[in-house]
TrEMBL record, chains A, B:
Residue ranges constituting the Tryptophan synthase beta chain-like PALP domain according to the UniProt record: 26-315
Keyword Zinc applies: no
Record's protein name: L-serine ammonia-lyase
Cofactor(s) the record lists: Mn(2+); Mg(2+); Ca(2+); pyridoxal 5'-phosphate
Coiled coil: none
UniProt keyword Magnesium present: yes
Alphabetized UniProt keyword annotations: Lyase, Magnesium, Pyridoxal phosphate
Reactions the enzyme catalyzes: L-serine = pyruvate + NH4(+)
GO annotation terms (biological process): D-serine biosynthetic process
Length: 330, 330
């Protein structure tokens, strides 16, 4: 593993102090009696839906952009590609440092996310809905305009930013046994695992993914078994449809997270999202239905000595113009 | 004012200790950067949507039923009438003390609330949708079965139970200048005002009501100016459609709350409810859109020296089977 690519403990702490310096909130940890009763464990919901821009992505985006501006104060602007939340977070972060921003989005991105990006004054470039097309366009823009690229996950500062969740969590709930994390490219779980496992080597970090991800096979073999070119999964959760994890994040995951992966069918994810609205009174997006769905429907797969479990609620940017996912099922 | 009808400070503290003894949660107070920016104040959301049974009503119902059982351990059962949330709360509380329960409901009560009541094993009796019909039926049942009546608001123990919100709030945010409270019969605001004004006579307690409530006129005159027989208001918010306040609660309100009332059109209430889903990531019900709508759309009516404002989020039992209120508008 190339240590330069992975943030150190110090870099994650510096990221936390970056975020604190601009009043990024420490998100609350909520508990719920029904959830504890149903699962027979103590469940701690780390509510990144209450984070700035409505998802954890602001942590990585802000840390990366603040760091980039420190090193090169005359940066011309920023460009990124995103399934939505990362684009919103980068647009917001760029507006804070008063730099132009371009977000490359797949042409099937939900309207609520496009509106949020525009609200921060960023320019939007739409592209075909395939894993590689947006990256190519992003590279072209970066070259032509001399803009700084803010990757969605494969970047040391992005991973350090997401790791600040664990900095807060380990202080909020010191006796955690496990953390359940939705995984797409792997930036979130890498940041959390890098920090949490160094503070407490006994803690277990579990990935929660849609069907078809092949993550467990890859982790068990310690190899990228995914077919190329990269594909999108057949899932309702657009935020987690990358089949492959990142070139930086996958080795971190191999070193620090459990080989056992929670694979969540779409129906379970949607039911868990509804459960959050109905019983937890939280607006969450489908990606959060992966970790919540794992604990609701597969908690019996966890060792009985795992009592205190954090479930990462990644964000709450669900489209409220249209019917909700379970309403559309009718 | 008949002091026997109003809970004392001690009775509200005893209610708080009743609730603590059975692990009723202290609900969190949340803040949100967008909300603070929009209103130019520090807004503290007291999240009763996270309370047991999804609304503040569990406080009053549990305190009343625990007190009643202490005095008469052989009570045969409980009966109540309700717009929904109080019925759920009484059904839940009765199930905890293992007594049968009957809830009299108007025949237009939303399905989600009926389902919740049934889930706690209570019997449901439907009646015509007028303010007096359910009270008459409730009295008949109480007489016939020798059941204890748990009124929705006009009862010392119910008011003391709701007052426990203020016990928590004054500890959570010691330097509050004002509290904004949705008002129907007045049990919630009476409990909060009785406690908060005795602890800090300078704090201001404001009522937030639907159009047609006539509450400001009544408070200014100190008289019940409402037409008889009691009427329902024309509002989408079924939980707050009583025009009249209670015989016990109205005198408390005259003594302790501000004469200035926030009157909230339905459109503002629905927009505020949507704002909560979209920006606060909270599932709230329309009644909470009254207090949130007041601070979002009428904050300029508050004195400029009022900085720290608690907004009571009464509950989150909105019907998620159907389209949400703003979706139905199309």
């Amino acid at each position: 593993m190339n240590e330069k690519l992975n943030p150190s403990l110090a870099e994650i702490h510096i990221a936390a102090s970056h975020l604190r310096s601009i009043s990024v909130p420490i998100t609350p940890v909520l508990t719920n009696a029904i959830l504890n009763k149903l699962t027979g464990r103590n469940i701690y919901l780390k509510c990144e839906n209450f984070q700035l821009t409505g998802s954890f992505k602001s942590r990585g985006a802000l840390n990366t952009i603040l760091n980039a501006m420190k090193i090169e104060p005359n940066l011309k602007g920023f460009v990124t590609y995103s399934s939505g939340n990362h684009g919103i977070a980068v647009a917001h972060a760029a507006s804070l440092v008063q730099r132009p921003c371009i977000v490359v989005l797949c042409n099937d991105t939900p309207k609520n996310k496009i509106d949020a990006i525009k609200q921060y004054g960023a320019e939007i470039v739409l592209c075909e809905s395939t894993p590689l097309s947006h990256i190519a366009i992003c590279l072209d823009i970066a070259k032509e305009r001399e803009y700084y690229i803010v990757p969605a996950s494969d970047h040391c500062d992005v991973i350090a930013g997401q790791g600040t969740i664990a900095v807060e969590l380990m202080e909020q709930i010191p006796d955690l046994d496990a953390i359940l994390v939705p995984v797409s490219d792997g930036g979130l779980i890498s940041g959390i695992a890098l920090y949490a496992k160094r503070i407490n080597p006994n803690i277990r970090i579990y990935a929660c993914v849609p069907e078809g991800k092949m993550l467990e096979e890859c982790l068990v073999e310690g190899k990228r078994l995914w077919p190329d070119p990269p594909q999108f999964l057949e899932t309702e959760c657009k935020a987690c449809r990358s089949q492959q994890c990142g070139m930086i994040t996958f080795p971190i995951m191999c070193s620090f997270i459990e080989k056992q992966v929670f694979t969540i069918p779409d129906k379970v994810m949607i039911d868990a999202t509804r459960f959050a609205f109905e019983h937890l009174k939280l607006v969450i997006e489908l990606a959060s239905g992966l970790s919540l769905g794992a604990i609701l429907s597969q908690h019996n797969k966890l060792d009985t000595n795992i009592h205190n479990i954090a479930v990462i609620i990644t964000g709450g940017n669900i489209d409220l113009n249209d019917r909700l996912p379970w309403q559309q099922e009718k």
